[in-house]
Amino acid sequence: MLKTLKKLFLVVALIAFSTGAMAQDTIKMGALATLEGAFAVLGEDSLRGVQMALAEFGNSAGGKNIELITGSSDASPDSAIRAARKLVEQDGIQVLVGPLSGSEGLAIKDYAKTQPNVTFLNGSSAAQDTTLRESAENFFRFSTEGAQWMAGLGEYAYNEKGYRTVAVLAEDYSFPYTQVFGFLEPFCRLGGKAPLDARFWVPIGNKDYSSVIAALPDDVDAIYVALGGADAINFLTQYEQAGGDAPLIAGSITVDQSVLGSKGPTRKFVVGTPSAGPISDTWDNPNWNAFVAAYQEQFPDGFPSPSLFAHAYYINTKAALLGLEAVGGDLSDGGAALRAALSALEFDTPTGMVKLDERRNAIADIFLTEVIEGPDGNLVNKTISVTKGVSQTFGLPYDEFLKYGQVSRENPSCE
Amino acid sequence: MREQRWFSNSWSDSGIHPGVIVVAVFLIAYPWFTSDFFTFQIGAYSLILATIALSLMMLAGYGGMISLAQLTAAGLAGYTVAILGENSVGVMGLGWPWWLTVIIAISFAAVFSSFVGAISVRTEGIYTIMITLAIAVAFFFFVRQNYVIFNGFTGFAGVEPPTLFGIYWRNPTPFYYLTLVIAALSMAAVFYISRSTFGLSLQAIRDNPRRMRSLGFNVPFHRIFAYFLSGIIAGTAGVLLVWFNGRISPGSIGVDVVIDILVIAVVGGLRHPIGPFLGAIAFVLLENFAIDLIDRERFNTVIGLAFLLIVLFSPDGMLGLWHRLRNKFRTARENRLAMNGVNKIDPHSQESFDNP
Amino acid sequence: MRRFIEQHTFWSIVILLFAVILLWLIFAVWPQWLIEILGRKKTFVNTLLNGLTLGGLYFLVASGFTLIFGLMRNVNLAHGSMYLLGAYIGYEVADTTGSWFLGLAIAFVVVALSGMLMQTLVFRRMEGDDIRQTLVTIAISIIVADLMLAIWTGATYQFTPPDWLFGAAQLPVVSTIRSSGDAVYIKYPIYRLAVFFVAVAVGAALWLFLNRTKVGMMIRAGVNDRDMLSASGVNVQLVFVLVFGIGAGLAGFAGVVGGTALSISPGEDVRYLLASLIVVIVGGLGSVPGAAIGALLIGLAEQFGLAYFPTYGVVVTFLIMVIVLAVRPQGLMGGSWSRQ
After folding, report:
1. Residue C249 has pLDDT above 50, yes or no
2. CB pairs below 8 Å between A and C: how many?
3. CB C189 to CB A210 under 8 A?
4. Cβ of B35 and A90 within 8 Å?
């Protein structure tokens, strides 16, 4: 027994102290993504974004080598914090990029407040409150969030499509609330209606939409759908099977490539569905094309085109590297200079210029798209327009914007 | 009549093993020679998970009832702390004093656990796993959908332990000692219960409920009371868990975590209160460092395989494995001693050599 | 039937009355006051049909679960994994050969074989130790889920069923009368109707198998008294392997059927495992008719919950379970084994 204990003691002590020694010419960077469970595919793609940015800088910034250490969560905030804590407190990283999903982002922001000497950059998490309310001084988000992603869609549905009343079908948690808010706020300001009894909030992970489809009202012009992944695929197939004929308006991840390109029956009836988001696969722009080409070359076994997760992680990692360049890799002041540099940073990304607002959230371009039938019969999103410089507060002053209140099932009410 | 003598058994016959002292010294000295990370995330977190698993071990080991709702009881206590105390999400957070919320939280967990017990003891054995699993998932769905009280999918954040005696109790070292004390007390309680009249009747009921019933024992009552006691332990650990994470959401009590607790208890060993602690340490070390050794993606395969191997080949868990190894070693040595002609009339006198 | 009416006259009248009201609700054109209470007729009838078809699917999954339990007292918590495995295998076969029916058949066979393998290699080793068997099935389900994730990733798959099964059929049920006087008929997906009929057919086949064949009689005898069966010279192990094969195969079969009605993705294993658990807890462990009643009840509750109060819809099914447990712990059709 004593022997075993001694051994255990030795092992523990070894692990505990081994992190003390750190080479002076390397900077440890952590990447936190969801690498287990059903979202693992997305987590892998987000890491591809990180690797692309690192490759672009030759794994060094400001004259220092960058050592990348990955951490994994299972998409729950608890696991994200545990993984972040291990990266920061055990592996001794000084810059962290991540996490992937909204509720994880909120948790990491809270954790960031307890680690003032570490610089946190968002991954792809897109909850509004990560930066809008009680933001952390050392948490930066160079990617945009769920409400921003909807920029231009409400106006388009009202003005161009001529919709006046919409039903809402969305998953019952904060990300869809944010998207619904981002869509309805301009739509209702223009005079559109979305009655509260025509909003259907289904539990996340629901697969059988047939009864919800039967309950959808007939007297609406369109249905706004904010579902993601498998949920979206199930809804679209069942909607077609049930002979549904109301036009759809889609959230950012409802008609993306993972849904349109999934195996199974073709879903031609979604042609013409408008949507909006931070990227557009078919945007004909040299920067974007170069980004896609680099992605395809570096990761032949990746997706046909980078997902919005790879895109967001790429932008945030690149921002971190640019910040490190600006301070010459000097983090001896606990990263204060780096954070100052990041706050002032403005740079060109595959999707246009990005800069930060005073709460360290990105002001960036958003794409309005519409599903069309591609040349070889597959469905793709065509870029309709680009909304330049979308801010988190839709251009309103901060205090004014806060009056809308937190996103929820009933916000905005727009009766 | 019998009820009055329930806890009449004493420690006297247990004796204190020298190994216990060594472990105790190690555990008390632990924060002095490790980093904050090891004190907090490895040490304290293992102890919390172990305490929850301990409440399962008590039910399963002494009562023969494998309840998968122990984490749910802990989660209910955690939620209660966030709801009645302070949180930062602007939902509920009634701001009651910490000692009151803690007492209420633990009572809720105990009552909830008794309720689970009352439902599941009406049927027997294997039914318990199914019913408790269903209850655990039902509670998960309910808190995920309820925004008025439980704040739905988002859950609660900003849950702080009290600052008492000028100490902030989430600082690694104080928090570690807090969990250590709670874990030690829980283990002592379980140990004591197992040797009390109540515990002995519970074990007899586990082995032969029919006979105990005909002997005049109130079988359902014994079982429900066991659920009540395990609910207190789980609830206390639940309070620590929400202080540890500073937050609680449906994901904290999801079905995968429920299974993790079961894995911890079974892999550690269900026969002795020390089992869950071994299981928890192994689990937490693996959870934190697996990513450095193997591909994190297949973490669940590793956990599942370990679980499968233990269940297949060592039903008593790591503890059983240890005992088996020790026995083998001892037999080998006894054989050697016998060959050397050593008198071994009193096998107990050998124990201190075998097991310093 | 007649004895039932004689013995429970009151309940017979209640059931009859209920059936008449239901039929009227389905076939009558709804008056305005009813629409105000229940909403549109289209929603109601569709939800009812959805509940029935989902119940059919749940029956397919849960019947295998309950069959295995009935004979072997083995709570196979890997049953959900077998559902998902069947779905993936069926998909691969259907995708390669282009034949949906071949996928269905091969899914049944492969999963049945894997079930038989599990019974021979694992469960036979620990016969009589219910709890250990259950723990082993949990371990297997963790490993299998992770390996399936490795092979088929987190993507969502959907089958392409034969064309004549896809699309909607017009039912002879009037939804509303338009102001022009035209009747609007209710449309319903053909495939989901097919699911229901397949479930009924499987249920009937199981009943015939259990009640009219020699092997079925052995199985029923084994359910009642396992020791007696083996004492009477039957090779119990063979019966066990057979039943395990059928039960697992049904899960695989249900995987293809359910994967076509909805979709296949990680996490479905847990979903269907839970559905089976609740169905058999409500219906009574070990009873195939119980599984049918439980499946219908849960399917209907889930769909009506989703359509009329989506927020707490999921919780309704669990409420039913707790009520049943409180009133009748052995389940609606459960035998006396649970009280031993």
Report:
1. yes
2. 114
3. yes
4. yes
- Find the CB nearest C146 among B124, B142, B301: B301
| Average pLDDT of the segment spanning C301-307 | 87
> Which among B125, B50, B65, B95 is positioned nearest to B318, based on CA atoms?
B50
Best mutation target, B151, B288, B301, B353, to test chain A (most A CBs within 10 A)? B288
Digit-coded pLDDT (tens) for A106-157: 889 989 998 999 999 999 998 888 888 888 999 999 999 999 999 999 999 9
For C144, nearest residue in chain B (alpha carbons): B301
d(C-alpha A235, C-alpha B21), whole Å: 61
Q: What is the CA radius of gyration of chain A?
A: 22
Return all residues near A354 (Cβ < 8 A) that are at least 6 apart.
A142, A315, A319, A346, A347, A348, A362, A363, A364
pTM: 0.85
Name the residue of chain A whose CA is nearest to B352's CA: A1
CATH architecture group of domain B2-315: Orthogonal Bundle (1.10)
HEC string for A61-89: ECCEEEEEEEEEECCCHHHHHHHHHHHHH
Contact flag B305-C143 (C-beta cutoff 8 Å): yes
Closest CA to A251 of A176, A159, A174: A176
Domains for chain A: give ranges and CATH numbers.
25-144+286-364 (3.40.50.2300), 148-277+374-402 (3.40.50.2300)
Residues 6+ apart with CB under 8 A from A126: A102, A105, A143, A144, A145, A146, A149, A175, A178
- Give the domain ranges of chain B: 2-315
Whether residue C140 and residue B297 make contact (CB cut-off 8 A), yes or no, is no
Domains and their CATH numbers in chain C = 24-332 (1.10.3470)
Q: What is the mean pLDDT of each run of 10 residues along chain B (356 residues)?
A: 42 62 84 85 93 94 90 95 85 83 95 91 77 89 86 86 79 88 93 91 88 88 93 95 91 89 89 90 85 69 86 80 81 71 45 35
Positive or negative: CA dihedral B170, B174, B179, B185: negative
- ipTM > 0.85? no
Return mean pLDDT, chain B. 83
